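Lecture 7 notes: from sequence to structure.
We start with the chain below.
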Amino acid sequence: MSNSKPATSLVLRTCNADMSSQNGFVWPGVGEMAEAPDWINNDECGHGLHGWLYGQGDHSCSSYLDSTAKWLVVEVESDHIVMLGGKCKFPKAIVRFVGDKLTATQYLIENEPRAREVAVIGATLITGDKGVVTVGALGTATAGDEGTATAGNYGTATAGNYGTATAGDEGTATAGYKGTATAGYKGSATAGDEGSATAGNYGTATAGNYGTATAGYKGSATAGNYGTATAGDEGTATAGYKGTATAGYKGTATAGDGGEIRIRWYDHTASRYRTAIAYVGEDGIEANVAYRLDENQKFIRAE
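Predicted structure tokens for the same chain:
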């Protein structure tokens, strides 16, 4: 007869500030056992305790993600875990840690080696030069020079010089000199000189000198001297000295000395979009002044 201890795994989850969760269940304190009163061993959501195995999964499965939420790390017998897709469920677990997002994810990564191989939801990870950092939704990833930082939805990714930073929807991505920053829908992307910054719809993309900034619909794109700024329909594009600013339909464009501005308009006669182009210093177009098109596709100052 074997007396060996069952294999266990650490699971991350969240709950209300008072430790309550779905259906009024209240989680116990550290060191205590939590047991589901309605456990059913199947692969359907419900009838059990739920969480993210090793901290990886779909953050939208939880309703407790505001600043007051408690973050728990619980220990579960591995054989009892049922994977559901984006989360898991189990009949019982021992609470090992209770804290906020930062401290709980730190505890998880320190005590669960398998968590170091996945994108942990809410984690804050930092690596040195040329390193690669990946965290899940709500997390923060910071990589040193020439490194790569990737964060999930709502996360923040920061990379140093020559690095690449990518954040998911509504996230923030920042890359250093010559870096590349990409943020999803409603995100904010900032890249250093000669870098490339791309943000999704409604987002803001900012690139340094020689860089390229691209923002989607209603977004704002800003590039430094010699750079290129492109914004989608109804967006705002701003480029510095000798830069090029391109805005979509009903957009606004601004360029510095020696630059050019381009704004799309719709030609109903030909049933196609066309682009109006103006050059700073010619035909009354001034540097660092925002322009839009009037009903005759002529450049006028944006009010």
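Points to note: The mean pLDDT is 93. Helices lie at 101-111.
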